[in-house]
């Protein structure tokens, strides 16, 4: 695996207009507990219960731009939580694509699926994670993988679920790694200075 570093967090790829449109179509308010909804516009993490958070909106937007999700893509959303990132990804892929969210906490998986269903994007769904299994390998490979929890080291089990030319954005040890599968293997670009809840 080839690595590169020294990349500023704002040096990102993608289509900001499409990400902005996804945020407008799927407001964060609908993916927060009632007690937190008045804070939806604040640019910092908010609790959603069970020790989990709804990530800072600017960070979510940056991750989506790093991921560069094309219409029609097959996407895996690891740590879907409230369903917000799954809904945003569903807007980006459109009805010709598919998004599979996976969540380890049963109550969050149920709540997130309900929040997602309210957006009317039937090409996206959320399932309960299988204990000890990262992602959903049986339904791969995926064109894009988004991970919203921090790993201690690059999770190779998720790298293995990337299809040809697939891309993954994953928090790893205080940073974000953009993992790109190429004909020659895998390259990793590092973006420093991010914290997330731990990947389990």
Automatic annotation (TrEMBL):
Its main location: cytoplasm. It is found in: Cytoplasm. Belongs to the methyltransferase superfamily. L-isoaspartyl/D-aspartyl protein methyltransferase family. It comes from Actinotalea fermentans. Its EC number is 2.1.1.77. Residues 28-57 are annotated as: Disordered. The lineage of its organism: Bacteria, Bacillati, Actinomycetota, Actinomycetes, Micrococcales. GO terms for molecular function: protein-L-isoaspartate (D-aspartate) O-methyltransferase activity. One of its GO terms (cellular component) is cytoplasm. Residues 36-45 have a biased composition (Basic and acidic residues). The keyword S-adenosyl-L-methionine applies. GO terms for biological process: methylation. This is Protein-L-isoaspartate O-methyltransferase. CDD domains: AdoMet_MTases. Keywords: Cytoplasm, Methyltransferase, S-adenosyl-L-methionine, Transferase. SUPFAM superfamilies: S-adenosyl-L-methionine-dependent methyltransferases (SSF53335). It is an enzyme of class 2 (transferase).
